[in-house]
Amino acid sequence: DIEVVPALQFEYIPWHSVVGLFPSKAIGSRPKDILVFGTKFLPLPDLKCRFATIEVPADFVTAEIVRCTTPIVQPPDEGEDVLVSVSNNGVDFTTDPVYFRYLSTCPEGHYCPLSSLDVIECPRGTQCPSTGNVNFTLCSPGTYQSEIAQSTCLDCPLGHICPFEGNVEPVLCPPGFLCSETGLAQPLSACPGGYVCPEGTNSSALSIHSVAGAPQICPEGMHCKPGASSLTPVPGNASTPQVCFIGYKCSMGSATPQGDGPCPTGMYCPSQTERYLCPVGHECPQYGNFAPQECNPGSYADEEGLGSCKPCAVGFICPEFALLEPEICPAGFICNETGLSAPSVECLAGHFCLGGVETEDPLSSSPFRPIPCPPGTYCQAGVNNNITVIDLFSTPQPCALGYFCPEASETPTGDPAGGPCPPGTYCPGGDSTPIETQPGHYTPRYASISEIQCAPGTYAPEYRTQKCLNCPGGMECPAQGMSIGIPCELGTYRPPAGENDTQISTSCIQCPMGTYAARPGLVYEYDCSPCPAGYVCGVPGMVNASQQADKCPAGFYCPEGTDPTARFDNPCPAGYFCGEGVAPEQRMDNLCPAGSYCPNGTAAGEFVNACAEMYYCLEGTASRETMIP
């Protein structure tokens, strides 16, 4: 018979591996359960762990974990590392380089409680500075330890603080503080003014440039108080940048709201980041100007950067706000003060003012002074030129009729230095001085506007005559406006007029009959020469008796001054005869001839009176009675 043998089975087990241990060390004199981590562990009866060459049973926990108990060994003082292997079948062990360390005593970085067999790594935040520790020591403030199994704590790094005992990790330096040293339990100091210290600031170096870890400079236009922690402004939050005061400029790094200080005189700061020169037409007084101020009327600013506007100079006005330059004082006015927005006074009466007058004193040496009103005109207050436009009273006006206006007259009647033209002068209008009357003219009263011709019978030999003179004796003034009398012609005369005469002869009078005038300018009638003896002046106004007079008629003699009415008044005396032209002294020159008798009035050649018969007549017989028998 054939014996049937059951079939044998061979099972292939997937290869397993070891990747780690926990714990990975222990004191060799004490057995210690450890966990072995790996892959593809199987719950087989031959599951084992091997420590170097020593095999021990293993307990299946999971396909990735088995538990083993370390065998007791006596490692050297410095400890010993042994290879840990796992076998699913008790034969084939892993060869992964995973080691368990046997210790002779509790090592640095570990502590081994007396109550247990564990070698425990010092936890984070602690230190185990030597061997044989039975407990760990907490890291002191200012230190930390982020690793396990460390023998020392580390100084807190720059930019951090380690405020407590047992610090595992350093804490970033809180916002607003400076941690520029190591080993700090608290921040070294608050962030300096003018800077911002975000979390973790680790340097005290101050710079306008952004440097990692260093305080960040406060932005322009803002200020950062000490302890500022954020560059993002939050109004009212002093830990962030705050706006500086209006009128102040804050450069980068300002620590106070005044920043660099108030905007200086002559400048303005419209924002906390800007600063400008005060513009023309404006002023920026004192400090802290956030806007320029317009120059007030009466002032101006012709350049930038003025702290105060310039007062308008004398001779100028500044009538508006924000003037760049002053305006010249308008004609007709006086600007004799500084800082005027309008002229202070009108031009003085009696004067005119061109533009820019700066003084009321007409005698000032300044070229910009009131100028006297031209002669012959007057100027009311406010006259602005020297060219007359009739009835435009901002110009000089002609002086009134009958009055004279010297330079600088204030009224149409010439005040203060002028006035009515006095007698002997006249003013037809627009006169600077009285006009003297011409010879032959007169003005008898004040304020005459024209001269008057002297009336016939009067004359004015001189200038400036107030009253014409009566024509002098021996002269005649027959026409109006005579300046000299005309001497009476030959054969005429003219007596002077008396003061009370109401009728004045204007012409010379002929010398009466019986007279003549052989020379001119006779004054009185008796100045006429009597007709010469022996002649009869029979017409008035005779000038030459010898040529114009008639001889005295024969039989008569004619004394001086004989006129026709008297030619027969003087007969030749008896006993004589008279021819023509006999003068009184000649009346007896011719005896009556013998043989005749000559009664009164016997003319020569008229010997008709012969001596009577029986008588004879001697020479010079005058009548019958005187004949001789």
Would you give an account of this structure?
The protein is an all-beta fold and 629 residues long. It has one helix and 52 strands. The strands form 23 sheets. It has an eight-stranded mixed sheet, with no helix packed on it. Strands 9-10 form a two-stranded antiparallel sheet. Strands 11-12 form a two-stranded antiparallel ribbon. The longest helix has 4 residues, at 545-548. It is rod-shaped, with a radius of gyration of 80 Å.
Entry keywords:
629 residues; 52 strands; 1% helix; 21% strand; rod-shaped
Largest sheet: 8 strands, mixed
- Strand tally, please? 52
Bulk shape: rod-shaped
The pLDDT mean sits at 90
Provide a short characterization of the protein structure.
1% of the residues lie in helices and 21% in strands. With 629 residues, it is mostly beta strands.
Protein topology:
Elements: E1 17-22, E2 25-27, E3 33-39, E4 48-51, E5 54-62, E6 65-69, E7 80-87, E8 99-103, E9 110-111, E10 120-121, E11 126-127, E12 137-138, E13 143-144, E14 154-155, E15 160-161, E16 171-172, E17 177-178, E18 189-190, E19 195-196, E20 216-217, E21 222-223, E22 242-243, E23 267-268, E24 276-277, E25 282-283, E26 293-294, E27 299-300, E28 310-311, E29 316-317, E30 327-328, E31 333-334, E32 345-346, E33 351-352, E34 371-372, E35 377-378, E36 397-398, E37 403-404, E38 419-420, E39 425-426, E40 435-436, E41 441-442, E42 452-453, E43 458-459, E44 469-470, E45 475-476, E46 486-487, E47 492-493, E48 509-510, E49 515-516, E50 529-530, E51 535-536, H1 545-548, E52 550-551
Parallel strand pairs: 2-8
Antiparallel strand pairs: 1-3, 3-6, 4-5, 4-7, 5-6, 7-8, 9-10, 11-12, 13-14, 15-16, 17-18, 19-20, 21-22, 23-24, 25-26, 27-28, 29-30, 31-32, 33-34, 35-36, 37-38, 39-40, 41-42, 43-44, 45-46, 47-48, 49-50, 51-52
